[in-house]
Amino acid sequence: MQPQNAFSSIQIEGLLKKNDQNVMLTCKRGVSIPANLLYDTSPRVRPDGFWVRPPSKLPAPGNGTLRVIVKEQLGKGRVGTVYSVDIISPEERPHIPPLVIKVSDRYRSAKLAREAWFYEEMEHLQGVSIGRCYGFFQVELTEEYEVPNWRKISEESAEEADEEERFINSWDDLEDERRRRLAAMTPNPAAHLTFVRKHHLISVLVLEQLGDHLPVGVTLEGIEQDVYDLHEDLGMLGIEAVDVHWRNILEASQTTEKLVCPYHDYQHNWRLIDFDLAQKTDRQMKLAAGCAHSFLRTLFSNLVEGHIVDWD
Asked: Contact 135/29 with Cβ under 8 angstroms?
């Protein structure tokens, strides 16, 4: 299988326009925010503190270029838009599964960079509890380029960006306790501010395409425990997914190998997605996963009755 860090750039057809003409979008490998994403807690903390990310098992980063054509929009969220794509090149390559791209909205690159950081943090859970990530890419555009969905939310996003900038500029005035708690949701202020101020920065997260959502109106026998265990996997790292929704649980890909879970000793059939709101804490596993479990109980009972609960 193609190493997940084989590509240093991505070329995307069918996404970008200039003077009403389709043009190629080329993005280079980006850097996830070197963030303070840690949330110190007092109850039931780990005796040894925060879980420490082990060295990556991937080979040295490659210099390949991934070229894709946008097929269709699959979803739209608070950070960006997800598209399915056709892979055009490289033509001769190890196996690459079907992919999707998650494209940031205007002023949302910092949030997508945060999500990329969590995929890096959970590298050993890719293909186990979460989907595989094939890179995070960025480029700064100029005014004449048009990106789908950007114009529709630009005013709203500009107001949010201004609010974020005001908050970050007042960071030093916050009380220590308040600052520590907000650090869980706000990356390193200096790094985050560079993203907020780049109003034409577009970011792309490349992920393996996963399957369907949880079924609705049928028994979830066998599925419920699988999903509970996914959150326990994250909890082993002190990570809380936070955004526990039906839309953020997808069936595992049928085109890639399901790896055996190192914590539960079986192959999960489901995957968690969307980590821009995730938190890394120093909590023990049961507490880190406990909040998600309470939401899941409500979600599952309603799904069996034919209802999708949305907490937004």
From this structure: yes
